Amino acid sequence: MTDRTPDREQLTDLLSQQWEAIGILVADLDEKAWRKPSPLPGWTLFDVVAHVVGTESWLLGDTPPPHDPLRPKTDVRTLPHVRNEVAVLNEIWVDRLRPLSGKRLLALFDEVTDRRRAALAAMDEQAWQTPTVSPVGQVPYGRFMRVRLFDCWMHELDLADGIGRTVAEGGGRAETAFTELTLGLGRAVVKGAKAPDGSRITIDLSGPVTRQIHLAVVDGRGAVLEAAEGEPTAVISMDSGLFARLRGGRTTAAAHRDAVTVTGDTALGERLVQNLAFTI
């Protein structure tokens, strides 16, 4: 499966829409609601938005606020959900922003995302294509921004699930986020599902994002195919919203047994469903 750097104008517009959607979703939360738990371990709804603020601030060259000496200092590396250096930086930003009120955090979110819109609008094509360190390795800056869209889109779902609201999960932002959800599936097929050589798996997603994802294992390597090649060994059918949450590690297959159908080699298909998560 080929992966070209996303179009600059299209993706920056989608990012702007995504930030606006998050702002609207949390605009009416009171202070008690801000502190409700999210689907992410250790994070409240406040923390989810603080994480977005922190990452976008970091991309602007900002550093985390200083630690308040009146607050107990947390060694974020000891937290069970912190597993790598990216998570350490995320957690530092979240921890430093926690003393703010929800209202102040939302104002900061609006200010930071407005600055990011301006920075992206001023960026030329050369900068968009420049290799940049990102959570998925060194990639063109434009690819990194697609990762940012995916991350923010997933966090919109986290916020909606934590609040108990339904949001639109289809459209351009979702379609673009699904590119990131799909890319690493070859690894899940081999490392997680232990699919043998010659295996062909189709994941059939119903709306709001409707698509078929075709996977194959050749010479011990899993790959996402542009189109199906032969009869599938297994077919997995589910709703795209559940697929996104399974890939994001927000839930487990065991909690949604009736929402997933596997035909063909059911053992193989079920192993893959149980090993879809690649992020949390």
UniProtKB/TrEMBL annotation:
Domain SCP2: 198-274
Domain Mycothiol-dependent maleylpyruvate isomerase metal-binding: 16-160
Any Pfam family hit: SCP2
SUPFAM superfamilies: DinB/YfiT-like putative metalloenzymes
Name of the protein this chain belongs to: Maleylpyruvate isomerase family mycothiol-dependent enzyme
Organism listed in the record: Nocardia rhizosphaerihabitans
Phylogenetic placement of the source organism: Bacteria, Bacillati, Actinomycetota, Actinomycetes, Mycobacteriales
